[in-house]
Design brief:
Blueprint (H helix, E strand, L loop, with lengths): L1 E3 L2 E2 L12 H8 L8 E2 L22 E4 L11 H13 L4 E6 L5 H4 L11 E7 L2 H11 L6 E6 L15 E7 L9 E2 H14 L2 E6 L3 E4 L2 E4 L5 H8 L4
Parallel strand pairs: 1-4, 4-5, 5-6, 6-7, 7-8, 8-10, 9-11
Antiparallel strand pairs: 2-3, 11-12
Length: 235
């Protein structure tokens, strides 16, 4: 997975952030996650080699701001530069996830119009409350490529009425020894909602605590994605 993190740091924003892997990793390194700073990779998409060629080759997908949130307030002074690089690199596809979808219209460039062809926005939800709040906004926004990320999923959710114009729904559980339990029935229910609306579905990872067929399993972090793939329910 190719990533581009022009800044790092984030603030816990809702229930889904309780066991955030960024905060946990930073704590082990004695890093203050709440300090939002530009990284030395800020200009990565347009960096060139000695021959004048882009170091990042055309045709790749770049996952943007996976150590922060692309719409976080502290990055407002820097975001326009990122949009300019995204526009310059129309030969790359950029994907970012956000829990701050209510800030979207304040954060787009002037020439956004109905969206850039090479940008996918993933709106992250974790429970029904955040689904209803965020997705009701998300469904109205001018974005050409929309994904819904139900990760970490901490309760059963009904998102069927928000699936119009959505390309992909991703579901995953929480990763932590104290993680809230993921019930496989919730995963299958979202899958059925996607099938009904002809939307692609991906089960990305189990939860550290996982219920299937009435039995609770406790899984190692290294096995979460592997066990989800074994389910073989992506469609």
């Amino acid at each position: 997975m190719a990533t581009w993190n022009p800044w790092r740091g984030c603030h816990k924003y809702s229930e889904g952030c309780k066991y955030c892997y960024i905060h946990k990793g930073d704590r082990r390194k004695n890093i203050d996650t709440n300090l939002i700073t530009r990284t030395d990779k800020f200009n990565a998409p347009i960096a060139k080699n000695k021959s004048g060629e882009y170091k990042i080759k055309a045709g790749q997908t770049l996952f943007l701001c996976f150590s922060s949130d692309f719409l976080i307030e502290e990055a407002d002074p820097w975001r326009q530069e990122c949009w300019e690089m995204i526009k310059e690199r129309s030969d790359l596809h950029f994907v970012f996830l956000t829990k701050r979808i209510e800030r979207f219209m304040k954060c787009i460039p002037q020439d956004w119009k109905n969206g850039y062809d090479n940008v996918t926005v993933g709106c992250t939800i974790e429970n029904q409350d955040r689904a209803d709040y965020r997705l009701s906004l998300f469904s109205t926004l001018p974005i050409k490529h929309k994904n819904i990320i139900c990760q970490p999923l901490i309760e059963k959710v009904d998102i069927g009425k928000y699936l119009d114009e959505v390309e992909l729904v991703v579901v995953g559980g929480e990763s932590d020894r104290n993680a809230r339990t993921l019930n496989y029935d919730w995963v299958l229910d979202i899958r059925e909602q996607c099938i009904h609306k002809n939307v692609h579905f991906e089960f990305r990872q189990c939860g550290s605590h996982f219920i299937k067929d009435g039995r609770e399993y406790h899984l190692a972090v290294k096995d979460l994605c592997k066990q989800a793939r074994k389910a073989n329910i992506n469609c």
